Amino acid sequence: MDFFECYRIIKVHQKTSLPLITLTRSCTMYCLFSFNSEQMCFVHVLLNALDLDAKGKTVKIVIEGSSVKLVPQLEQETNPFHAMYLEAREKNLIAGVCKACSSKMGVLSEVKDSGLPLLDDMSGHPSMESFIQQGYTIITF
Questions:
Q1: What is the pLDDT of residue 19?
Q2: Cβ distance 119 to 96 under 8 Å?
Q3: DSSP symbol at 56
Q4: d(CA 49, CA 42)
Q5: Residue 108: what pLDDT?
Q6: What is the DSSP string of 4-23?
Q7: By three-state DSSP, how is residue 62 classified?
Q8: Predicted confidence pLDDT, tens digits, the chain (141 residues)
Q9: Which of 10, 39, 68, 73 is the most core-located residue (most Cβ within 10 A)?
Q10: Whole-angstrom Cα distance, residue 74 to residue 97?
Q11: Residues 6+ apart with CB under 8 A from 95
Q12: Going by C-beta distance under 8 Å and a sequence separation of 6 or more, which residues neighbour residue 120?
């Protein structure tokens, strides 16, 4: 997706033939980067991802920073947010988990056991730029 696909073209400039665009975005692809390890913060990542998906948007979640510590917790069936996490997984909304942060936070083994992809394309961390190049709008939590 290139830049102009994310905006509505309202007309073409008469002299330059360049498209004039509105400020209203029409993108429907969002990548939610979670950095915070508070479960009550992460639940909002899940809620928003599931809501955007239900409304026909393309959405991915990237688990980064200290939020990687939540993966082993959310994998437990006794966790109050396990069902919501499982729904996001089943819908393939979770793009993956930061490999470097998983290692640094001491949960790399558990994250590997979860089966979620490890993301490491930017010095061991997930690259926002790679999602931007695919046309995603980045939202951080």
A1: 54
A2: yes
A3: T
A4: 11
A5: 98
A6: GGGEEEEEE-TTT-PEEEEE
A7: strand
A8: 444 444 444 445 556 655 554 444 556 899 999 999 999 999 999 999 999 999 999 999 999 999 999 999 999 999 999 999 999 999 999 999 999 999 999 999 999 999 999 999 999 999 999 999 999 999 999
A9: 68
A10: 13
A11: 31, 60, 61, 62, 117, 119, 126, 131
A12: 98, 99, 100, 126
In angstroms, the CA 98 to CA 61 distance is 11
Name 139's Cβ contacts closer than 8 Å, sequence gap at least 6. 30, 31, 32, 33, 48
Contact 137, 30 (CB under 8 A): yes
Q: How far apart are CA 98 and CA 48, in angstroms?
A: 20
- pTM metric for this prediction: 0.82
Place of tokens 């665009």: 21
List Cβ neighbours of 83 (8 Å cut-off, separation of 6 or more).
none
3-state DSSP call for residue 115? coil
